[in-house]
Amino acid sequence: MSIAKRNPNKDQVAFASAATTGFTRSAGEVTQASLALDACVKAIEAAGIDKSEVNGLIGANNGYIQAALGIPEVNYYVGAGVPFGFSIANAVGAVASGQCDVALAYHSIYRNASNSRSASNDPFRARAFASNPNAQALGDGFGPDTVGGAVGYTAWASRYLHEYNESRDLFGYIAVNDRSNAQRNPAAVMRGEPLTMEDYLNTRMIRWPLSMLDMDVPIDGADAFIITTTERARDMKLKPVLIHACTNGQVAQNEEDQTPSLTHHGQHVTVESLRAKSDIWIDDIDVFFPYDGFTFITVSWIENVGWCGLGEARGFIEDNWDKETNRILIKGRIPVNPHGGALSEGGTQGSGHTREAVHQLQGLAGERQVPGATKALLPMGGFFFNAQGSVLRTE
Amino acid sequence: MAATSTEESDAELLERFDNVRLDHINKHLYRGLLHKELRLSRCSDCGWWHHRPKPICPNCWSKNLVATPVAGTGTIHLLILLHQGPPAEGVDYSTPHPVATVELDEQEGLRFTSTVVGADNDDLEIGKRVELDWIERNGKPYPVWRLANDGGGR
Which pLDDT value is given to residue A128? Predict the structure, then answer.
């Protein structure tokens, strides 16, 4: 084992701003890039800088984005992939090493014809993904008989239920928590649609043991961020949010059906590295952002960061359930994905979690603001190819 | 791992699996299917099995890999029931379609995923013993799981 434990750039790179378009089931006659541009403009304006100060771009299609925004020159430009923790890690590396000084990082989400019925009725959306090789399955010749891709989480959820003699309503707590939180987020697609455990248990099964409400919501929308040196962020308009530590994690047997076990996958590599790099852990934080592309991923993160032991998530969640607001409130004060997460704000692949974390620490989270929040933990991604984590703090 | 004289040429293989992203590494697995053999990659130097097929042994880096038939016995490790899914010949989601990842007896952690046939979904669960069987799909033999005769868990 060779876990990365150095952290020479601790607290030296910071978010100066975060912005969102908000999320809807349909933003109408837009493209994925136009959504990204809307968020980028807001992030640059929120930081109070001129676009000419930006000299790094982190996100998809960055040549087009630069041309559309008219950013005069950039020295660093990369498409970092998802979840968004890859962009955070890229930004720390690029800014700390001098590849760029002021990075604009963005992530845009566009419903496509394969994951949204309404999108499949829009011929332009069908065409948008037609030439994208990543939109097609790898063609392993096994049709539906695979646990590859997102199905892998359903498969390991079945293993969890088996090993710990658990039942599906455990996952329901995560869905209800996120939906309750979304009621206080104007950007959330599911605001105005509260959810009960009974609703959860009665909803349509997609792939047992996971139902429609265990999966994140396809939406249109985008988030964008200005990331720079902590020193330079202090001169911008908003309170800097320091990137205290960040990492990614993957194991050798990373294919979904070959993954070693519930006790050894990407999340465990991430946690070991992040704990070594960070002076801040769960006893110190004010807000918690476990990834929730599937409910089961959140259950795993709750256990793997150490709130409780493996297989003990039910006891932990029930002990920390706030009946009044119908959500998790750890120790009576720490909300879990207060913006509603991917399940109820919208499936942002982590950019929404990051934006909300920045806003919470800047005191900009409106009616869902955690009073005096200064530290956040963001364990992002799943088990196989995309586990990652960040710790953010204010000065 | 050259094809023997009784086996299909690469050209024939490409024609039979015209919708699969075949390559020089995974072709041996697919060729085996036409002979109703599930041939997984095994290192002839250190004996380590792996799946999916890779050009070197992840254990010892040898390139002496042989697509070797497995016994076809194992235990259900992961299990899902698809209430909807991609279209496939003979697959009707009106009864949820089972997909099982099976841990093979050859080696701890060596697994192969396919559907399970011949059993009520209520009888399927993680831990049950299964055996490899073959059905026809798209005009070719297709590997599937069937509950073992003893049906017992372990």
Answer: 72
User: Which residues of chain A make contact with B110, given a CB cutoff of 8 A?
Assistant: 258
Look at phi and psi of residue B58 and say left if phi exceeds 0, alpha if psi is from -120 to 50, else beta: alpha
3-state helix, strand, coil in chain B (%, to 5): 10, 35, 55
Strands A287-288 and A221-229, sheet pairing: unpaired
**What are the CA-CA distances from residue A382 to residues A12, A36, A268, B14, B109 (Å)?**
27, 24, 10, 35, 20
Where does residue A148 rank: exposed (0-12), middle (13-18), buried (19+ CB within 10 A)? middle
pLDDT of residue A139: 40
Lowest mean pLDDT among A73-82, A134-143, B70-79, B90-99: A134-143
Cβ atoms of B67 and B35 within 8 Å: the answer is: no
Domain housing B115: 73-147
Q: How far A167 CA sits from the closest chain B CA (Å)? A: 14
Domain count, chain B: 2
Q: Does A255 sit within 8 Å of B125, measured CB to CB?
A: no
* ipTM of the modeled complex: 0.92
| Nearest-Cα residue of chain B relative to residue A204 | B83
Domain assignment of residue B65, yes or no = yes
Q: Are residues B87 and B113 in the same domain?
A: yes
B65 lies in the same domain as B95: no
B6 CA: distance to closest CA in chain A (Å): 23
**In a shared domain, residues B40 and B91:** no
Asked if residue A371 has a cis previous peptide bond (ω within 30° of 0), the answer is: no
**Tokens describing residue A196:** 């009960």
Is there a single domain that holds both residue B55 and residue B120? no
Q: What is the pLDDT of residues B86-127, one digit of tens each?
A: 888 889 999 999 999 999 999 999 999 999 999 999 999 999
The average confidence (pLDDT) of chain B is 92
Structure confidence at residue B3 (pLDDT): 47
Asked if residue B142 belongs to a domain, the reply is: yes
**Cβ–Cβ below 8 Å for A208 and B80:** yes
